[in-house]
Specification:
Length: 202
């Protein structure tokens, strides 16, 4: 469905239907139906209006230097609203929007920081002209969405944590971090567990 939302063009005079777009990309007709429902929602209508006004960038490539490592990605959509830059990311996971925030909050924080830097403010969750960068995850097919915190504190916390983690990786350091995941780890009772005292068994 991402491909449909990236490719459809409401400005085209010879508009291609969502069904044709789905077929051209080898997607089932259900994907076209889900895309149509999203585009008919208030958020979808905002996206269409922004595209028509030339205020939406889709599949926008972004790059971010963190801890000496260049991280790259592509934002599903960035809406250039008068009062904010809005990062939109679509997900098709089999879960609701609230769970998406836990799964993908870091990804959207990275996008928000990359945009803030690219827009000339260097970070802190603000883009050009001091506009805040907002981020929202959409659970496609469930008609749900959730905002991801991108205020200055959230972005600064992400930047510090990610920079430290990536700097460790760049130096080949992989310090063990015992926790809840230990309960599912196959190394739990193995001498290979560097922590030696894994947790998560309560
Ligand atoms: S059991 Fe050891 S290796 Fe596995 S996640 Fe926990 S600390 Fe890491």
């Amino acid at each position: 469905m991402h491909k449909i939302l990236a490719a459809f063009d409401p400005r085209a005079t010879d508009a291609v239907s969502l069904g044709e777009l789905a077929a051209a990309q080898g997607l089932p007709t259900e994907a076209a139906g889900a895309a149509a429902r999203f585009l008919a929602s208030p958020d979808g209508e905002r996206l269409v209006a922004a595209i028509r006004a030339g205020r939406a960038r889709r599949e926008l490539p972004v790059a971010l230097l963190l801890g000496g490592t260049l991280v790259t990605g592509a934002v599903d959509a960035v809406l250039d609203a008068p009062d904010a830059l809005e990062v939109w990311d679509y997900k098709t996971d089999a879960c609701g929007a609230a769970e998406l925030a836990g799964r993908y909050g870091t990804q959207l924080a990275a996008y928000a920081l990359a945009l803030a830097r690219a827009e000339g403010r260097g970070g802190g969750g603000e883009g050009r002209g001091g506009r805040p960068v907002r981020a929202r995850l959409f659970a496609l097919g469930r008609d749900e969405s959730v905002a991801v915190p991108t205020d200055a504190d959230a972005i600064a916390a992400f930047e510090a944590k990610a920079s430290e983690a990536l700097a460790h990786l760049a130096r080949g350091e992989f310090p063990p971090k015992p926790g809840e995941r230990c309960t599912r780890c196959t190394l739990r009772n193995s001498p290979l567990c560097a922590a030696k005292t894994p947790t998560g068994d309560v």
